[in-house]
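User: I've been going back and forth on whether these two constructs are worth ordering. Before I decide, could you fold them both?

Assistant: Sure. I'll take them in the order you sent them. The first construct and its C-alpha cells:
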Amino acid sequence: MSKDNFDNNPEEKEETSSVENQEETTNESEGNELSELEKKEIEYKELHDKYIRLFSEFDNFRKRTAKEKLDLMATAGSDIIKEMLPILDVFERAMATNEEAQDIEAVKEGFTLIHNKLIHNLTSKGVKPMDSLYEVFDVNKHEALTQIPAPSDDLKGKVVDVIEKGYLLNDKVIRFAKVVVGN
C-alpha cells in the first residue's frame, strides 16, 4: 500500500484516530488520577504542617505555663513576708528593750501588742484560729492525740483540751487542731 492510499483510505484513518483517542483518554484518566494523587499529597502535606505547628505551639504553651507556675510558686509568699517584716522589726526592738527593762508589766504589754499586731495581720489575710474546746470531735478539723475519761457525761466525744490550736485559711483547714478527746 502506498502512502497515498493510506492517507486516502478512510477506514484506516478511523482506526488510527480511534487508537489515538483511546490513548488520549487513557492519558487523561491517568492525568486525572495523578492529579488526584497529587492533590491528596498536597492536602496531606498541608495538614501535616498544620499538625506540626499546632503541636509545637502546644508544647511551647505547656513549657511557658510550667515556667510561670514555678515563678508564681517561688514568689507566692513574698506579699505575706513583706507584711510580716514590720512585726519582726517591732519584736527585735522589744527584745532589745527587754534586756534593760525593770518593769515586768511593760514587757508583758509589749508582747501583747506584738501578738495583737500579728493576729491582725493574719486575720486580714483570711487566717482564723479554730475554737475547738468543748466542741464535738471532728476528724475534718481535729487531730486526736489522746483520749481521757470524760470529766462529765456531756463531754463524751467532745474536745476537753487543746494542745495546739488549729487554723483556717478562708474557711479551709490549714492546720488541724491537736486535741484531747473525752471518752
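The second construct, handled the same way:
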Amino acid sequence: MPAERPRQGVLRQAWRIAWKDLKVELRSREIVYTMAFFGAVIVVVYSFAFPSSSALVRLGAPGLLWVSTMFAGTIGLGRAFDRERENDTLRALMLTPVPRLAIFLGKGIAITFLVGAVALVVTPLMALLMDVPFFDHPGELALALLLGAVGFSAIGTVFAATLLKVRSRDVLLPVIIYPILIPLFAFGTEATAALLKVPADLDNAWYWIGLLGAYDAAFLVLSMWIFESLVIE
C-alpha cells in the first residue's frame, strides 16, 4: 500500500498537468486545428498524386497514413512547451512540489491526445478519398496508432523540453527526433500493411504491434530516466 500511494500521486499530478494543457487547447483550439488541417492537406495531395490502382493504394497507404499523422503531430510537439517559454513559467513549473516525472508524463499524455485527434481526422479522410479499407480491422489499427502516438510523444517530449530555449528549435526538433523514430514508423507501417492484405495477415500484424509495444516500453523507460537531467538548466 505505501508503495502504491506515491505512484498514484505521480499519475494524478501527471493527469492534472495534461488536463491543464488540454483545457487550454480546448479553449483556443490553435494547435489541434493546425495539426488536423495540415494532416488533411497532406492526405488531399496524396489522393491526387497517387495512382488510382487499388493494389498500389494498398501498398502505399500504410506509409502515407503514418507519415501524415506523425508529421502533423510534429506541429503539436513543437508547441508543447511554448506556453511555458512565452510566459517564462517553466522554472516555476520545475519549482513546484511535483516530481519531474509527473511533468514529463503530463506533457506526454497531452501530446498523445493531440496526435490521436489527428489520427481520427486523417484515417477516415484517407479511407474516403483513397478508398482504403482501414476499418476492416479497426481494433488492431487503433491499437497500432495509439502505440505510435505514445512512442512519438515519449521521445518528442524529452527533446521538446531540451530545445526549449534554442532559437532554431522548430528546425532542430524534427532533425533530431525523426532518425530515432524510424523504427516506430517502420513497425507501424508494417503492421498497417499486414492489416490491408487480402486476406489480412493478423498474425504478422500482431507481431509488428508487439514490436511497437516493445519500442514504446524501452523509450518510455529511457525518457523517464533522462528527462530530469536534460531539463536542468
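Notes on the second construct follow. DSSP finds nine helices and no strands in the chain. Residues 11-231 form one domain.
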